[in-house]
Amino acid sequence: MTGRASVVSILDSGKGVEFMVTERESYERFARDIEKHELTVLRSDGVYRHIRCSKSNSSDMHFEIVTWPGYLAYVGDMGAYTFQRTEDMFEFFRRPDGKINPRYWSEKVEAYGRLMMRGKLERAYRFLWCLHAIVWAVNKFDAMTEAKS
């Protein structure tokens, strides 16, 4: 994970204001927040998937990811986002090295919610956290799928 700052402007309601949040800081906090999380596959049928990530018997920092052709929806404690890009959105977010691409991925956001009451820095931090969560979940899902093969 690099220490470079990410420019996140999608979350500023189109006002064109950009602000800086480091990927390293967001990743370090993300890693601490989910160190005891488990991934549960609720559905896996081609590009139709539903996974839940949480600590056992807790909703603290939980999140769920649902995919259908061309879309990935993320919902959890850190916000809600819907991305659109490719038929298989796990393929789009698959990053074995764990790196995220906030600028490009922010262009693929179709909708987001639960962020209006937050300041710019908090919104940017939460967006990066969610991107780390998606990449982490896709990698975990892949590892679970390979282990069953």
Structure description:
The chain has 4 helices and 8 strands; from the N terminus they run E-E-H-E-E-E-E-E-H-H-E-H. It has 149 residues and is an alpha+beta fold. The strands form 2 sheets. A 6-stranded antiparallel beta sheet has the order 3-4-5-6-7-8, with helices on one face. Helix 1 crosses helix 4. It is globular. 34% of the residues are buried.
Give a concise summary:
The chain has 149 residues and is of the alpha+beta class. It is built from four helices and eight strands.
- Major sheet: size, sense and barrel closure? 6 strands, antiparallel
Order of helices and strands: EEHEEEEEHHEH
Overall strand count: 8
Alpha-carbon Rg, integer: 15 Å
Instruction: Please indicate the percent range of residues in DSSP E strands (runs of 2 or more).
Output: 25-35%
Q: Give the distance, in angstroms, between the N- and C-terminal Cα atoms.
A: 30 Å
Q: Kindly report the spatial arrangement of strands forming the biggest sheet.
A: 3-4-5-6-7-8
Question: What is the overall number of helices?
Answer: 4
Summing up helix and strand content along with how strands pair, one would put the structural category as: alpha+beta
Low-confidence stretches: 1-17
Q: What number is the mean pLDDT?
A: 85
Helicity, as a percent range:
25-40%
Summed up, the domain count is 1
Anisotropy-based shape: globular
Oligomerization state = single chain
Provide tags for this entry:
149 residues; alpha+beta; 6-stranded antiparallel sheet; two-stranded antiparallel sheet; 4 helices; 34% helix; 31% strand; globular
